[in-house]
Amino acid sequence: MGEIDNDIDVDIESQWLSDDDLETLRGKIPIVYVEAVPVRLDELGRVTHVGLLRRAMADGTISLAIVSGRVLWGESLREALMRNLDKDLGPAAFPRLPASPTPFTVAEYMPDPIQTGFHDPRQHAVSLAYVVPIQGHCEPARSALEFSWVETHEAGGLAVSAEMTGGQDRIVRRALAHVGRLP
Amino acid sequence: MGEIDNDIDVDIESQWLSDDDLETLRGKIPIVYVEAVPVRLDELGRVTHVGLLRRAMADGTISLAIVSGRVLWGESLREALMRNLDKDLGPAAFPRLPASPTPFTVAEYMPDPIQTGFHDPRQHAVSLAYVVPIQGHCEPARSALEFSWVETHEAGGLAVSAEMTGGQDRIVRRALAHVGRLP
Amino acid sequence: MGEIDNDIDVDIESQWLSDDDLETLRGKIPIVYVEAVPVRLDELGRVTHVGLLRRAMADGTISLAIVSGRVLWGESLREALMRNLDKDLGPAAFPRLPASPTPFTVAEYMPDPIQTGFHDPRQHAVSLAYVVPIQGHCEPARSALEFSWVETHEAGGLAVSAEMTGGQDRIVRRALAHVGRLP
Amino acid sequence: MGEIDNDIDVDIESQWLSDDDLETLRGKIPIVYVEAVPVRLDELGRVTHVGLLRRAMADGTISLAIVSGRVLWGESLREALMRNLDKDLGPAAFPRLPASPTPFTVAEYMPDPIQTGFHDPRQHAVSLAYVVPIQGHCEPARSALEFSWVETHEAGGLAVSAEMTGGQDRIVRRALAHVGRLP
After folding, report:
1. How many angstroms separate the Cα of B37 from the Cα of each of A99, B65, B98, B105, C25?
2. Which domain holds residue D15?
3. What's the pTM?
4. Which residues of chain A neighbour B104 with C-beta distances below 8 Å?
5. In terms of CA atoms, which chain C residue is nearest residue B116?
6. Confidence class of residue B145 from pLDDT cuts 50, 70 and 90?
């Protein structure tokens, strides 16, 4: 889970917390995250494609990934979702946040890779995951190298899973199941 | 629940079923319905308004109502939702069907008003209810006399409930709870 | 989907509907079904096993299957779930129906095997699917030949899927995703 | 939200975090909470009663409350739920944790009482809320003075709401809506 923090993040987040502080907190308390699975819908609302980023991850790999980021102090979940979608997909993505605040699943990332099957070497993170339809055009920003739309049957398959880390492939498959598109 | 069937309905549905046939079926088998609570969202996806129709209902009243209609043989739930949204809100409503096929609640309408609290004098209907964001402009069509947007705090209140029949006010309040906007 | 109707069914259901009547209805109107994925939970509520029946199916195969049955006129979804669980798993299963009436998914079975990926040669059925923890002991009843508990990682795998028909393997995988146990 | 921390809490949690540390963290980062609405079910799974504690709250009032507590570092959501249920309802409650890890709603408690409608003077907390059926006998423990079962129509009413603080009455009403029992 999670991309390497870069300059932009530090600028935004340092209003609240220094890097050292965050490092310390990560060993003491679970960190709240939001994650978004970007999707394209057809005219009847069916998911046709899943959007995936290619980026440098916290575990040192270059992997496929979904949108993911920390919730800041005083920030609502919706604000955190919108901020992270903007940072990862660019200003022309026009994401449509869901009407319900309930995530379709919750992932518990742990430093121990065995405990839950979700792994983040840096921290214990509790991540609320949402399916987010995208109306506009995505341009990979921040640390992302690439963005691409993948058809649903491919997004849930082995080839894509093999390129994801930390358990994010399981979030993609849970999202596909939630929207009735898991093969 | 349910508006009085009118000419347009009969035209569309008579490909499958005569009025007499439908009458007979209604006493023998539960009928599948879809219902939609039309909503307006702000830029962060929060529901700000609920859309309500004013129409002649099956119980003989003129009441506030949500979008509601039968699923036809061979028709998917998404097609039924879209067809009934079009019929009730007009062709410029541009409803955005949800990515997930799972309804936010299920209502069981019975001829006996006591059994479930959802009442339809004509039939036993099992209704799958969805929250549907509306992007366009609604024009009441079919048997509807009027359409209006009501603020969330008002939509869940007693004055609106008193003008709804069959238990549809409970569907509106469940929808508001689902999207985190029940007062 | 759906086992071959047998004597017990006819006895119970003939209060409402003759076999001939039902046959006619099936070509005219979608039929309401409930389906249950029986599960075993550990002490923290995690699903450890999925219960599968082996039975003669409507498509002529002997296949693995979940609990499935029609909702009768005037019967609530909960009553239909409990009646079908009792019929399929026996009187000592002690199923714990979920507190929420919302299914975890909805499956649309069609005579056309392509349309939705859920296939029932007899009918268009709209099926509300629930995860149902089982506290007691299951004894296959009715037309079922066998009942067995399968570990979650196996239940979502290819070998089990290959033995299921009509798309029920997809309901099992959606159930596993819903409870956070899809591999 | 949240009871006053007492000795038992400190003993358990001090393995991870001192009181001073926690105080500091609360101003820097959102804190992960779990909340449980205890319920009694009838034989068909319908919620008949909601369980409410009476306790000294963080805002200085003696109020009705649901089960609520922080998730500790390295602790899973299920473990946190079970630990807080045990602490609040005693060892004979036998709570049945839900099969799905998805909460029925998420509440965002803020020091600013206006921002979200959920208020905690001490912190920004993101709380995952679950409906938890109780099989056993509840004995108020920890800082709770009393525990009582309240019928669903009463639990969603004004008299009970007036005795709850921080917005927990809204969580109760969302829970009732989720299980189809909101009046």
Report:
1. 12, 9, 12, 11, 30
2. 7-178
3. 0.93
4. 100
5. C76
6. confident
